[in-house]
Amino acid sequence: MGGSIAGCAAALALRRARVEEITVYERAAVRLADRGVGVAVHNARYAELESAGYLDTSIPFVQIARSRWYVRDDTAPRSPLGREIGVMPSPFRTYNWGLLWDGLYCRVSETTDFRPGSAVEAVKATPEGAEVHTDGRTEHYDVVIGADGYRSRARAAISSDARPGYAGYLAWRGAYSSSRLRDAELLAEDEGAYVLFQGGHLVVYRIPDGATGGHRVNWVLYSAPPPGLDQGMHTPTSLPPGTAGDGLRAHLAYVCAELLPSYWADLVRATVYDELFVQPVYDFTAPRHAVGRILLMGDAATVARPHTSAGAVKALQDATILETVLTQTATWSEALAAYDSDRVSSGHAMVDLGRRLGRALVTETPNWQTFDQTGLETWWRQATGTGQFGGRQLTR
Ligand SMILES: Cc1cc2nc3c(=O)[nH]c(=O)nc-3n(C[C@H](O)[C@H](O)[C@H](O)COP(=O)(O)OP(=O)(O)OC[C@H]3O[C@@H](n4cnc5c(N)ncnc54)[C@H](O)[C@@H]3O)c2cc1C
């Protein structure tokens, strides 16, 4: 269920584990490859996923080496970028979501019955497998994988009370061709930027542009909206491009005018309405990742706050673990039990890290004006705790 990053990776895992018949139900009828925002993958996690056979260099990426951290400082000599408080290593490959999806999809499209425009209405466990209800039909399978995202119906079937909790703030996002970027040389190709303010921050990096072969500028801004503007967002939802209301756009305009240095404010303002979308930040991890013959993967199983830069990585790791347990066990039941015990602890660790980073970067921000390189490094060590920013090490 679901043919996005987790769904395609699941199909690849099953094929590599020599499962013969694989059906992917994908609700969206449109090409998922047309989604064009950024996903960052830590170099070390990329290396593991490449050696496991899930990613390779055929998928375009931009290599980032470091991030520069800025604050607005109206008392300092005016730099449009703001005052640089430090530089941190940032060994990430950045991907265009659509190109990443396409790279995975191409590897499974010929060996999988991929059904775009097929929404699963319900899934039910049976003694020997699970049944899927869709388009007025019922189809029977040995195993059903719920890769159907954070509002998963598969999860509801095995654990009715596990659902994402609203973190109390939003992510405004945009991406556009870097040819539109004014003073483009101020954002080096191998650098990202964190622009910090009280109660939130902006993250910027370049990603590949599928249409031109050049780059796109990708940005995400986290901030709590004024009271009342996020009513209704406790129920998991997102606002697709071109649907953010006047109040949310006015708050973004306020952050640009009052809290960001001018270069970064202009970079955000260069996003046209149809490119702007808003995602409330949620997190949760399902208490069980497999029950009977129904298994959860990707955001259906765990959503960590995006500050971890690890959601897509974890979805791909889920798939590699599924392949491993399938090749090491003799029955579906043994494989699903092994998958469950591995992924539940991983899910808790990522959610915990996301909450720590959410406090540090959004809800309990320090006085950035006092920060320098040493202060930044100390704060970052405390914020990330045991590390694992960019995803946990793949151990199996
Ligand atoms: C602001 C933000 C920034 C992020 N940045 C990063 C990053 O830098 N690095 C990183 O690794 N991750 C990042 N992530 C997380 C990452 O995008 C996700 O974790 C990842 O894409 C996992 O996707 P998925 O396939 O599990 O779910 P989704 O992409 O949500 O896919 C679910 C699919 O299931 C389909 N579906 C749903 N219901 C049904 C149904 N009933 N029947 C059939 N199909 C159905 C949907 O149409 C959809 O295609 C970020 C997330 C956010 C919100």
Description of the molecule:
It is a single chain. By secondary structure, the protein is α+β, with helices and mostly antiparallel strands. It folds into two domains: 5-58 and 98-164 and 285-361, FAD/NAD(P)-binding domain, CATH 3.50.50.60; 62-93 and 165-281, D-Amino Acid Oxidase, Chain A, domain 2 (2-Layer Sandwich), CATH 3.30.9. The protein is built from nine helices and 17 strands. It has helices at residues 5-16, 43-51, 97-108, 153-158, 246-258, 262-269, 311-328, 332-363, 373-384, and strands spanning 23-26, 38-42, 62-71, 83-96, 113-116, 120-126, 129-134, 137-141, 144-146, 165-177, 191-197, 200-208, 215-223, 277-285, 290-291, 294-296, 302-303. The strands form four sheets. Strands 2-4-3-11-12-13-10-14-17 form a nine-stranded mixed sheet. Strands 6-7-8 form a three-stranded antiparallel sheet. It has a three-stranded mixed sheet with strand order 9-16-15. α1 runs parallel beside α7 (311-328). The radius of gyration is 21 Å and the shape is globular. The model has no long low-confidence stretch (mean pLDDT 94). The structure holds flavin-adenine dinucleotide. The site of flavin-adenine dinucleotide has 34 residues, from α1, β1, β2, β10 and α7.
Characterize the overall form.
Answer: globular
Report the major sheet: 9 strands, mixed
Named CATH topology of the largest domain:
FAD/NAD(P)-binding domain
How many helices does DSSP assign? 9
Poorly predicted regions: none
Termini distance? 25 Å
How many separate domains? 2
Q: Indicate the CATH architecture of the largest domain.
A: 3-Layer(bba) Sandwich
For the biggest β-sheet, the strand order reads 2-4-3-11-12-13-10-14-17
CATH H level, superfamily name of the largest domain = FAD/NAD(P)-binding domain
What portion of residues is helical?
25-40%
Cα radius of gyration in angstroms? 21 Å
Mean pLDDT: 94
Compounds present? flavin-adenine dinucleotide
